[in-house]
Structure formats: C-alpha cells, structure tokens
Amino acid sequence: MKHSALLTQAKRLSVLSLGAGVIFSLAGCETLNDWLAPDRVNYKAAETAPALNVPSDLSAADISQRYAAPPPINTLGGAAQRNTTPAGNLTLGVPTTQDPYGMHVESDGDRRWLVVDGRTPDQIWPQLQEFWTENGFTLKTDSAQTGIMATDWAENRANIPDDWFRKSVGKLIDFAYSSGTRDMFRTQVDRASDGSTDISVTHSAMEEVLTGQDKTSSRWETRPRNPALEAAFLAKMMQKFGLTEDQSKQLIAQARPAGAKVAVEQTAGTSTLDLAEPFDRAWLRVGLALDRTNFTVDNRDREKGIYYVHYSDSMAELKKEGLFGKLFSSNTPRPTRQFLVNVRPKADAVTQVAVVDANGQPDNSSDAQRIVSLLHAQLN
C-alpha cells in the first residue's frame, strides 16, 4: 500500500524531530530540581474538540427529564473536608504537630511516597482520579478496591525542542513531531494503621530508537524508570492537595528515610525474606519493590497479604495501547503465569515475604525463587 505524500513527509519530520530531541535530552541536566520545574512535564497534547452545534435546518431535540441521566452516586463518601494549616493552606491532610502541612514524604533508596495524615484511601481516591486526568492522562486501571490506579501510555510534549522550524510550521503539522518517548504511571494507595494513607507513584518508560543505515526505521525499547520524574508528580500531587509549589519541593527535599534491611532465610531449598518491620510498612515496601521489577501487580488482597503478579512485557503492552495498537498486527498474546507473593507477620516487628502456590505453600520453582531474589535486591 502506498502512503500519501503528507504521511511520508510527516514521518520524515518525526525522525528529524526525534534526532533533535535526543540531542536536547543529552544536552540538558537531569537533576531533581530540573524535573521539579513546572515546565518539565506536559502530557496535555490533545486539544479540546470544538463544540457541536445543531445545524440551522434541524430543530434541537427536546431535552426533558425523561431522558436525563440519573445523578452520579459518589460511592467513596464525598469530598473530604479541607483543613487550614498554620501557614494558611487549605489542605486535604489533617495538620499535626509533626506534620504542619497534614502530609509528609518518606523515602527508601531512590523511591519516595506521600503520606497524607488523617485520611482514608476512599477519601483521597476521587482527588487522584482528577489529578491524573487534569495532567493529560487516561486511566486504564482505576480500582479503588485494590488501591491500584494506572495511566495509559502518553507522550511528554515538554521533551520536544521548541526550535525555529517548529515555531514556523509546527502549528500546522504538530502531529508530525514526537519526543520519541512514552511514559505511563502506576499509583498505589495503601492505608496505614495510624489512619494515614500512603501514596506511591511508579514510572515506566519506552523509547523509540532509530535503526537501519539510513535511520529511517525505528523500534521501541524499554527505558529505565525516572525517580526524579516520579518525585515531580508527587510534588504536583501535593499541590493538588493544597500545598504551594515551594512547600511541595520542601517536603520532597526533606523526605524521611524509612525501611529496614532484609534477611534471606533458607528452608528445605526454599528462600523467604524477613523484614525487621511491622506488616503495614512491609506491605507497602514489597509493593514498591515489585513495581521496580518487571513484574506487574494485577491484584492485591491486603487481608490475606497477597500480591498477584505476572511478568510484564512493556513492549507488547505498548503495541496494544491507543494509537500504537493500530500500527501493529494483533497477535494473540501468550498467557503468562501468575505468581502469589505472600506478606505475613512472623513475629513482633518482623514480617516474612514468600512466593507461595494456590494452597499457600512455598513455591519452589525457579521462577518463584527468582522473584524472591529480585525482591531481596530491591528491598536492600
């Protein structure tokens, strides 16, 4: 099939823009302060469609109460009452002596998460839904029951260089420009025993790499997660919850270290992990550690202490998503095995982590033991 001249030209411009984007990214610095700048993230690429008007030769339909949709029912209990901080903010969190802003940030290595005081996940969930849609994302997973929220793949338009050529003709054919990267974000929301809520954001990324001698073709490859970009979205989230930009940066910079070392226990050829901390904290850290591996959490059952995970193929997932799904053949994906990661109290302030089978017995398979090894590396 022959492509139109416009499409061919668009592809050429996309390749040129990608090359410029690579140079731009290499030339720029990637410090946390840079990513916290308000102009470093822009996923709002789609413009608002014009309003639909009724043609002059047609009469408008009679909009009566018979056809009106019933009012939405807020199953999460409505919007939480905001509180005034000593600094004068109206914040979603409940201010305390330790947390005058009603929230703080904790860290474990290069991972950070937000702790909102005095709020349950149900009270925060609607705010998180608004947050991601306001930042230009479509939610592909939105499960308040499991506390998992995930966005679709999206492009950060701020990564496209604003050069003279784009300023000249970019408004006419802006679709031809691409940063050559796609990002998605997973949000995990957990309740803590003290009545607060832990919120973590995990970044996944793909990059289009030019191939061939003439660099006119390309392929998508996995990119490392960007901890600074995760922190940038936590800062934006705090601003959504009522803090100023400076206050959110301050809490990111003053993140409180959390997390204890992990010991490996060997029993009859099966490896398990012992975390020297209570269940609440261990549950959160194991979830974050799983997000740092190539395993995706499909479901969670906190009551049973089970994470249901499978191996994640980012390439296959990207090909199925949105616009990219139209560019690839729809081969039937091979089924992937699901693993059960069990987090359970072992003693006072000690929690055990193991991969188990459907009967709750330790899984001795090589794949299961590999997951234990990956978790050990991430938790330490």
Automatic annotation (TrEMBL):
Domain of life from the UniProt record: Bacteria
Keywords (A to Z) from UniProt: Lipoprotein
Pfam families: Lipoprotein_18
Protein name: Lipoprotein
Species, as recorded: Caballeronia concitans
